[in-house]
Amino acid sequence: MQPVIGIAGLTLQSSGGPFLAAERVFTGSTNVRAILENGGLPLLLPAAALAQDAQALLSVCDGLLIPGGEDMTPWYYGEEPLPVIGAFRPEIDEAWLAAVKAAAEQHKPILGICKGHQTINVAFGGSLYQDLSLQEKALGRPVIQHFQHYSRSYLTHHVQVEADSHLSKVVGAGRIKTNSMHHQSVKQVAEGFRAVAFADDGTVEAIENADGSIVGVQWHPEDLTQSAPVMNRLFVDLIEKAAAR
Question: Lower CB density within 10 Å: C or N end of the chain?
């Protein structure tokens, strides 16, 4: 049987007339395709349902994908919002944090992408820079471009993957090329995790726990499955760990 991979859902207020204007639950099509094409069965998990009973929803899943989204609410890592922050949605964050904690308690593998990577870090007690300009001041060096233009499938900057990491077994050690669409980043890495990939400006580009069952990446591998096929291995890794349970 193919393992079921739950995808934490977002909501979108659509417009267009009396029969079309409504709030809808969604995830990106590339998330669905990346799971399907690499041997898993995707299952969209509405945020409202996760907020109500994440344990029950995760009990029918073999693994969890936390995708990209809006900014993380800073309350959850002990800060108030600064002027540089973008839109944040506490109701989504509460649901996604509950999903991460439920999956971890049930010993199910997790892959976090972009905001999902940041959500994992916050769920286990880590913190974020609300904007890369704050990271620049803290680290004392300028940041490179992290919000690319044009196609999401473009490879826009390099990331250095640590050789002794689970991630290196998946995508290889050393310098790899990624896309990039974010303005927040991991600041303090959560206890029990370590940073295992970095951009040239010091931005934490990936974290993982001790046994590699929980991995977060700052880039968007779901949009690189054709332009950088090695990124498929992140989904294969998640699905194989889910199947092994």
Answer: N
Provide the CATH number for the domain around residue 39: 3.40.50.880
210, 196 contact by CB (below 8 A): no
Count of domains observed in the chain? 1
Q: Is the pTM of the predicted complex or chain greater than 0.90?
A: yes
Residues 6+ apart with CB under 8 A from 52: none
Cβ–Cβ under 8 Å, residues 171 and 206: no
Distance of CA 34 to the CA centre of its chain: 14
- Terminal CA-CA length for the chain: 12
The alpha-helical segments, DSSP class H, found in the chain are 29-36, 47-58, 90-105, 115-123, 132-139, 166-171, 232-244
Please state, in angstroms and rounded to a whole number, the distance separating the CA atoms of residues 10 and 103: 18
Rounded Cα distance between 236 and 201, Å, is: 29
> CA nearest 235: which of 113, 145, 147, 106?
113
Catalytic residues: 114, 220, 222
Return d(Cα 230, Cα 221) in angstroms, integer: 9
d(CA 214, CA 199): 20
Summarised one tens digit per residue, pLDDT across range 156-170 is 999 999 999 999 999
Could you report the per-residue pLDDT of 142-157, keeping only the tens digit for each? 999 999 998 999 999 9
Alpha-carbon distance of 87 to 72, in angstroms, equals: 9
Domain that holds residue 16: 4-244
119 within 8 A of 72, measured Cβ to Cβ: yes
